[in-house]
């Protein structure tokens, strides 16, 4: 799939799994806070708490993976959002090994892509040096934990995303995306409504 | 409702209506791209194309409103995302008047809050001057159309949001939030799943 479809993968606000790798160190975390910021080139913003192990690996490598988990992975998603990769690293392991989470390598950067997810993106942290060489994106990272990312690869499970859009049907409910309400409760977008453009005189419901 | 619950209102990625007012000029637009960035103080990021009439009014006033529309408003939501407030202003009108969109005034800044929505927020654009007096948030606005906003008021319809979380039930489906898939198709989160924390040895589905 073209990376140009990247925005459509997270346009509707799903929780994502943020993956990172620096050499042999790797991690994943759940992130409810991400959004596209640009169609072309495909760019997104994602919030990663600067104190986390993920933030450290992302800063060291300059790369970040985003995987879109599905309803069948609600437990996995909540679990990896509830424990610290740093603590596990100190004990010589990681969340992938601890929970038997299978991955494949991202096609461009080799980032961990979680099997069973329904979409996978790889990107680079955007650095924007000013005339003094200071990164103008550093402030958003420091003040708001917000990273701006340019997407280099985007893939999706064609059972639920094809022709540039999600197809959430009654026959693929386990593949629907997760939208975190808080405290481990996720809303799943299982109903579709179509908006029509109203003429000025049309009655409104 | 405490503004401290603001993040929960958009945590699950709904499309929002961005409202703006500068003197007698006012506008609203649909925005699929927003996210919380901080719990306390409550802060969010929202993407507003810098070429739009909304961006001009927001920059002039320093204020922005966010309303969370519901399934019953899919047509309204798609419609206001499909026309230009600037064109209407040139003709001496606006989207509110054109479509008979009723509003109440936000309690802190008096921003237009759209009736029939299920949550309403008001905020201020965050300005972060550096030692030279240059706004460090200006780059995100310029390069990524991303505005950082501190929330000053947050309200919700208690039929669907109470006790700090959304309650999407079978008896309030018209009040469920809209999540834009593209081209006027919205997913509606009508199913809830609960994530459990897995022990390392637990079998995974």
Provide structural commentary.
- The structure is a homodimer of 205-residue chains.
- Chain A is α+β, with helices and mostly antiparallel strands.
- Chain A is 19% helix and 35% strand.
- Chain A has a single domain, classed as Pnp Oxidase, Chain A (Roll).
- In chain A, a hairpin with a 6-residue loop joins strand 6 (103-105) and strand 7 (112-114).
- The model of chain A has no long low-confidence stretch (mean pLDDT 94).
- Chains A and B meet through strand 3, strand 4, helix 3, helix 6 and strand 11 of A and strand 3, strand 4, helix 3, helix 6 and strand 11 of B.
- Strand 13 of chain A pairs antiparallel with strand 13 of chain B, so a sheet runs across the interface.
Element pattern of chain A in H and E: HEEEEHEHHHEEEHEEEEE
Largest sheet of chain A: 7 strands, antiparallel
Q: Radius of gyration of chain A in whole Å, from Cα?
A: 18 Å
Q: Mean pLDDT across all residues of chain A, rounded?
A: 94
Low-confidence stretches of chain A: none
What's the SSE blueprint?
Two copies of one chain form a homodimer.
Chain A: H1 6-10, E1 16-22, E2 25-31, E3 34-38, E4 43-47, H2 53-61, E5 63-68, H3 74-80, H4 85-90, H5 95-99, E6 103-105, E7 112-114, E8 119-125, H6 138-144, E9 146-156, E10 161-162, E11 165-166, E12 179-182, E13 185-194
Antiparallel strand pairs in A: 1-2, 1-5, 3-4, 4-9, 5-8, 6-7, 8-9, 10-11, 12-13
Descriptive keywords:
7-stranded antiparallel sheet, alpha+beta, 6 helices, homodimer, 205 residues, Pnp Oxidase, Chain A
């Amino acid at each position: 799939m073209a990376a140009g479809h990247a925005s459509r993968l997270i346009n509707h606000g799903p929780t994502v799994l943020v993956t990172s790798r620096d050499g042999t160190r790797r991690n994943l975390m759940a992130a409810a806070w991400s959004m596209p910021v640009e169609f072309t080139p495909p760019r997104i913003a994602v919030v990663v708490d600067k104190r986390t192990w993920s933030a450290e690996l992302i800063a060291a490598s300059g790369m970040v993976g985003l995987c879109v988990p599905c309803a069948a992975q609600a437990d996995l998603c909540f679990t990896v959002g509830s424990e610290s990769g740093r603590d596990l690293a100190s004990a010589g392991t990681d969340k992938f090994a601890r929970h038997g989470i299978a991955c494949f390598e991202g096609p461009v950067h080799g980032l961990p892509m979680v099997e069973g997810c329904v979409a996978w993106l790889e990107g680079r942290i955007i650095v924007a040096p000013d005339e003094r060489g200071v990164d103008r994106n550093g402030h958003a990272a420091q003040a708001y934990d917000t990273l701006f990312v340019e997407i280099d690869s985007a893939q999706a499970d064609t059972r639920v995303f094809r022709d540039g859009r999600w197809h959430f049907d009654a026959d693929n409910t386990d593949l629907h995306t997760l939208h975190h309400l808080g405290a481990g409760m996720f809303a799943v977008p299982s109903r579709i409504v179509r908006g029509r453009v109203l003429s000025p005189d049309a009655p409104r419901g």
